[in-house]
Design goal:
The chain has 9 helices and no strands. The chain is an all-alpha fold.
Amino acid sequence: SLKPEDSEGFIALGNAEFKARALKASLRAFDRAARLDPGDFRPALGTARIRMARKDFRSALEAFDAAEELAKGGDASVLAGRAECRFALGEPERGVKDYDQAIPIEESRLQDLRRAQAAPFEVSASQERLALDYAGRGRLKEFLVWLASALADYRQACQLGREEACRKAEALTPRQEPSKPRKVQPKEQPKP
């Protein structure tokens, strides 16, 4: 049972309710967690995700901004979520900038986990988040028709195991025409 003063428990409950698509119950749990620990960014992040699921993008952006302020720019999931929100609001360039901040944070986290020889599921989860970030940034860049840069991001995501990104990279890879034998024009003979 949840302890009434346990913000961690309410965050876990909020995440579980969100996964079950019980958005009202999830929001209540995140609100309670935020009241119990106003300095924790995770309740604001949960609220932002609920608002995204409801397609209330302006309100979601406010919640992502609040989460980012509390996280002091140090959480990749906040930045990646805000990038997707900005894309939904028609601001793909700003979304790319958020991904530009998120990716180095997640890369650093993955390196730290590998150095610490963390549990394989932790390494795998971080690698999956990084692949999603590269694929997400690639999608925004493809939308902006920054194709060479989108291709580079899709290739990174592909190397990290994201199959969909492999297909996107293949589709964006320029095709070279097979070389055709050149026809040699016979030299014109000078007329006597």
